[in-house]
Structure formats: structure tokens, C-alpha cells
Amino acid sequence: MGRDGPISGKYTGNRQFTGNISFAQGATGAGFNFVKKDTQIWYVDSGKTSPASSGDGLTWEAAFLTLAEAVTAAGDYDTILIAPNSIETIAAAGIAITQDGLKIFGANASEAIQSAALKCTGTAAMFRVTGNRFEIAYLNLSQRGAYPCIQIGSASVGAIYQTYIHNVNFDGYATATYGVEGYLTSDCVNLTIEDCYFNHMLQQRLDAVEQGLQLEEIPLMFRQIL
Predict the structure, then answer these.
(1) What predicted TM-score, i.e. pTM, was given to this entire model?
(2) Which long-range contacts (CB under 8 A, 24 or more apart) does 12-19 make?
(3) Which CATH superfamily, name and number, covers 29-223?
């Protein structure tokens, strides 16, 4: 395995990596503004074969096979990175996001590309968000049950603050109710959705009881093709 050693100052010029890159854990963001100091980065690779089993999730070589494992391991303000895959199936009950500041990033270069994809034939929303400042981006989400892709809030938690959803391709499979839904008794406070595609939703793309809802209209795209 190659090793560069410590690098300081400004690095100029092009560099090409032919393998996966694992970032230092607990670093001061390693120069990346999406990583908070003293937090963990977790890795998910549902298609890895050597070994075809989950490790501790702290490097690409020891990545978790499922996103659910990474979410279970993650704490507040941690970051989860998802490798390119064919498509990972999420359990029908979906995934609960209870942490504050959790970030989940896929490998899609844009919302129009399917490099990192998740599907769920749900008995609930794919993601049930009750933590504040949750961010999710660069993924394809395909909900194939009559539930939302992302539900924000619950009957017991109330207002959820500053959810940020961007560069996501939502596929309702002509079955899902909504792309993003605010729970009936909850306010989605300062919910921001930008640069997303919404396809084949059975009812509508958004159903949010909001305070300060921000929709970036360009290039937010709604495609209701059944």
C-alpha cells in the first residue's frame, strides 16, 4: 500500500488516485468543510467482495455492507460515505435518523446519474428523520411502497430543524406517496431542498408543514411521468 506521509500547505497540480481514499478519523476535517472535528467518517460498500462481509466501517477496505449498519454506528455530526453500487435494498421498515448533524453522501456526480442507489419496498418511509441538521446528497432513492422516500418529524418529536436535501434523484416507482413529507404534527423548520429530481410520485413531490421552507427552483426538477 502506498503512503504519502504528512502533507502541509497548499498542494497544486493534478493528482490521480487509482484506488479508494480513506480519510483520517477525527481529523480537523482533513481540509474538507463537510467533516466536523473529532467526528467519525463511516464507509458503506454494498458491492464489495474481498471480503464480502462488513468490517468496522472505518475504511473502504473494512466498509459496512449496508447503510443501516453505518447509521447504527454513527454519532452526532458523523459523516457516512456510500460507494458506487448497482442498488442496495433497504429493509421494509426503513432507516431511522435520530442523530443531530448526520451527513449521508453517495457517489453520484449529479442528481441525474445513478452511481449510488438505494431502494425499499417499504412498510414505512425509507428515511424517518427526527434529528436536526440532517444532510443527504448525491444518491438515488427509489421507494417502491406506498410511503414517502423521506419523512421528517414524528408524532412525539415535533419540529425538526434545518434538514438539507440536495442532488438527490427521487423515484416513486408510481407507488410512493411523496418524495419528502413532513409528519402531520411537525414543522420542517428551515428545510432546504435543491438540485433534486422527483419522478413517478403517486400523490405529489413534497408535503411539508414548514417554517422557512426553501426550494431552489433551478435546477429543481419535477417529473410526474406515470
Answers:
(1) 0.80
(2) none
(3) Single-stranded right-handed beta-helix, Pectin lyase-like (2.160.20.10)
Q: What share of the chain is helix, strand, coil (3-state, %, to 5)?
A: 5, 30, 65
Instruction: Tell me how far apart the alpha carbons of residues 150 and 87 are, in angstroms, rounded to a whole number.
Output: 18
Q: How far is CA 150 from the centre of its chain?
A: 10
Q: 60: closest CA among 84, 76, 37? A: 84
21: pLDDT confidence band, cut at 50, 70 and 90?
low
Distance separating alpha carbons of residues 180 and 155, to the nearest angstrom: 16
Q: Which residue has the cell 484506488?
A: 19
Task: Give the whole-angstrom CA distance, residue 131 versus residue 218.
Answer: 27
Which pLDDT tens digit goes with each residue over 36-76? Answer: 778 999 999 999 988 899 999 999 999 999 999 999 999 99
The domain segmentation of the chain, as residue ranges, is 29-223
Instruction: Quote the radius of gyration of the chain (alpha carbons, Å).
Output: 18
- Encode pLDDT of 74-87 as tens digits: 999 999 999 998 89
**Burial category of 199 from C-beta neighbours within 10 Å (exposed 0-12, middle 13-18, buried 19 and up):** buried
Identify whether 84 is preceded by a cis peptide bond (ω within 30 of 0).
Answer: no
